Structure formats: C-alpha cells, structure tokens
C-alpha cells in the first residue's frame, strides 16, 4: 500500500476547480447503482461445486423496456483481478458496458468471483478461516465460471456471449480449453486486456512484490485475503478523492497497478468500490506464473510434490493448453497495458485456435477497457455488432 501511495504522490497536480460534487454511486452497492440509473436489476445466488456462494447480477433489459426475451441475446460479463461486477456499471450509462448492452436489447448478466465484495459466502466455511481463502484462479476457472454459466443457461434457455476483462479473460481461456461441455454453452468469447501468460508484467507495484523471495512474500501477505473492499474505500471516496487536486492522486493510487487515464472524472466511484479483494493464493499464482522461464501457464503449485500429487495426481502442476478451445474468440489489447503486456499477448495470439478478430489499441492501458472515455466507440460498439451479426 505504501508503494502505491509513493507512486501516486509522484504525479504533479494542477490546482484548479478544487471542489467537486460527489457522485451518488459512491455510497451505493452494485444493484443500487443500476437502480439509480433507472434500469431493472435482479440478483441470484449460485453455489459452486466446492460450496462457495456467488452473486450474479442481472440487467434483464434496458431503460426503454426492450424486454422481448425471445429476441434477447444473453451476455455474461466477468470482471478482472481485485474488481467486482461494479466495474461494468461504474461510468455513466453512455459509457458503461453493462448499460450499453442492456439498451442495445441484450439480457446482461455480471459475475462476481469468490473472495470479492459480492461473493464472500460459503456453505460451511468461515470467511475468517485459512481454508476459505485456499483458492487461486484455478478454482475461479474450474468452479466459479461453470456454476455461473450453467445457471444462466438454465435460467434463460440460451447459450451465452462471454465478455471478460483481465483475470476474466484468463479464467475464460482456462475454463473453455479444459471443460468442453462448458465451452459448448458459449457462442463467442470477447477478451478485453487478454491475459494468459504473465512473464512480462511491467507494473511497478506488482514487480516489487514479484521480485521478492516467495517465502518472504508469504510472510508479508499472510494466508487469507488480499486488498478487500473495506470502509476505508468509502472514506477515501467521500473525504479524500472528491476534489480535483487529490482526485488526481487517488487516480494514480487506484491505477498504480496498470497505468492512469488523466481524462477520467469519476475517481471517487472507482475509489469507493476498488480494490474489491481476492485471495493471497491468487496473488501467489500470479507470482508463480511470472517466474516461469517459458511462456506457459501451469496450475497452482502447492509447494511440495506430495500435495501436488493429492491435487493433480501428478507431482508437477499440469500445464494449461489452449489447443482444445474451440470457442470463437475476439481480442482487444493495449500497447500501454502494464499487466496484459504486449509481449505476453503476442505469445498468446498464435495459441488461440479459433480467433476471429484482434484489435491492438496503441493508447490503451489496462483499465481503459472498462473505464476509458472513448471505450464505447473503440470497443463496445464492435462487440454489439459482432453479436448481432452472429444471430
């Protein structure tokens, strides 16, 4: 956290328009934000095979009441690392993918990964237990996505279009390449800031963690949660980040992992809802992937051949292979992205068997794909066009 603040304070601020009106979404949860903008909203709880309870958020139609279910394609949005479903509705309706898709006539569902703000329940484990937090993005791919997608398909009677950002693309690649029945329920995969290989991360805060010895990193981070959403988020948003000067510093703080878009004016909303938490094991899995010599992605290494054998029936964690993934896939990547690094993306692209489109955006950093000023024109309208043309 100190590293993030040091980097944030390294930016010069221009003193003008100090006072700024607080955005009301700062104090609201995801469903309240949707209702605030006069969209319909539904919430569902889904239990995974390993007994985590996830929250699915649905915008069944747009504000104009275009709720003719027989004609509505179903779109599922999966957030990135340290985020939640709020990512898709954090901007104004004209700039938020969740609202844009609903107004375009789609049935929009948004997932929440285990351990994030809206998916903290378990059928019998306490959130204060180490056992609860013993998961990485392996489990997000192998349990969370199947539970969420299967529920949506059964509820709507339709296959889905999948949109992932960051970790949401990683889990999509993993799930759709290893679970063929699940892949059959997905009509197309739209990957924003695609991640699969992680050897070339350039984010300074992440690098400072990734360069530490693993035992020391374990001591520093513990064995439970990592950067959960707390009451401090709201304090920062309402008392600190709600003016023009400090808002710039808050923006640098929030975007320190991957870059900063100075044009953004809703920093208080982002500060109120991010970071949204994950497990330390998830961060250690990123650590493991960063230190791979070759561009490969392995399942989580539990630290000993004996424990790995219990998990995988082999002493070395298995490698994920994309050759079996048949889902039509479109990619949007940014040259300024410090997490989905262009080198890692270039290593990923040849491994995708059914890639139908790849757009490289020179000016985009990691968060522009969900928070960018011009993202509807750059990406979202293309997704809508592709979905409508595939009907």
Question: What keywords describe this structure?
Answer:
alpha/beta; 16 helices; globular; nine-stranded mixed sheet; disordered N terminus; 391 residues; two-stranded antiparallel ribbon
Number of separate helices: 16
* Helix content, binned percent: 25-40%
Q: What is the number of beta strands? A: 11
Rg: 20 Å
Measured between the Cα atoms of the first and last residue, the distance is 46 Å
Q: Give the helix/strand class.
A: alpha/beta
Tell me the fraction of residues in β-strands, as a range: 5-15%
Sheet having the most strands:
9 strands, mixed
Stretches where pLDDT falls below 50 for ≥5 residues?
Answer: 1-19
Task: List the helices and strands in order.
Answer: HHEEEHEEHEHHEHHEHHHEHHEHEHH
- pLDDT averaged residue by residue: 89
Overall 3D geometry? globular
Structure, explained:
With about 400 residues, this protein is α/β, with parallel strands linked by helices. The chain has 16 helices and 11 strands. The protein has helices at about 1-10, 30-35, 95-105, 135-155, 165-180, 180-185, 205-210, 215-220, 230-240, 245-255, 265-275, 280-290, 305-310, 340-350, 370, 375-390; strands at about 40-45, 50-60, 75-80, 105-110, 120, 160-165, 185-190, 225, 280, 330-335, 355-360. The strands form 2 sheets. Strands 1, 2, 3, 4, 5, 6, 7, 10 and 11 form a 9-stranded mixed sheet that branches. It has a two-stranded antiparallel sheet with strand order 8-9. Strand 1 and strand 2 form a beta hairpin. Helix 1 crosses helix 10 and helix 9 packs antiparallel against helix 11. The longest helix has 20 residues, at about 135-155. The radius of gyration is 20 Å and the shape is globular. The model is unreliable at about 1-20 (pLDDT under 50).
């Amino acid at each position: 956290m100190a590293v993030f603040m040091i980097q944030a304070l390294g930016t010069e601020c221009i003193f003008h328009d100090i006072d700024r009106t607080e955005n009301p979404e700062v104090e609201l949860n995801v469903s309240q934000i949707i209702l605030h903008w006069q969209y319909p909203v539904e919430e569902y709880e889904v239990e995974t095979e390993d007994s985590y309870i996830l929250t699915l958020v649905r915008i069944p139609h747009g504000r104009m009441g275009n709720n003719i279910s027989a004609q509505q394609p179903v779109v599922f949005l999966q957030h990135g690392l340290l985020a939640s479903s709020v990512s898709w509705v954090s901007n104004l309706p004209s700039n938020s993918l969740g609202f844009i898709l609903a107004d375009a006539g789609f049935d929009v569902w948004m997932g929440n990964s285990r351990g994030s703000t809206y998916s903290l329940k378990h059928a019998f484990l306490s959130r204060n237990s180490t056992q609860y937090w013993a998961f990485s993005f392996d489990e997000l791919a192998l349990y969370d996505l199947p539970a969420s997608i299967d529920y949506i398909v059964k509820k709507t009677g339709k296959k889905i279009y999948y949109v992932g950002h960051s970790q949401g693309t990683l889990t999509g690649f993993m799930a759709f390449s290893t679970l063929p029945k699940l892949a059959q329920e997905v009509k197309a995969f739209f990957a924003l800031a695609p991640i699969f290989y992680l050897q070339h991360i350039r984010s300074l805060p992440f690098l400072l963690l990734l360069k530490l010895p693993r035992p020391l990193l374990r001591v520093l981070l513990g064995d439970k949660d990592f950067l959960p959403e707390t009451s401090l988020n709201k304090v920062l948003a309402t008392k600190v980040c709600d003016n023009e000067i400090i808002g710039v510093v808050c923006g640098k703080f929030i975007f320190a992992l991957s870059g900063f878009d100075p044009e953004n004016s809703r920093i208080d909303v982002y500060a109120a809802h991010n970071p949204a938490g994950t497990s330390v094991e998830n961060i250690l899995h990123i650590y493991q992937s960063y230190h791979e010599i070759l561009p490969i992605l392995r399942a989580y290494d539990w630290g000993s051949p004996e424990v790995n054998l219990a998990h995988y029936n082999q002493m070395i964690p298995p490698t994920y292979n994309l050759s079996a993934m048949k889902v039509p896939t479109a990619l949007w990547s940014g040259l300024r992205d410090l997490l989905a690094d262009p080198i890692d993306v270039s290593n990923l692209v040849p491994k995708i068997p059914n890639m139908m489109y790849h757009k490289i955006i020179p000016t985009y950093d990691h968060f522009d794909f969900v928070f960018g000023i011009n993202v509807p024109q750059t990406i979202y309208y293309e997704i809508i066009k592709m979905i409508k043309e595939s009907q």
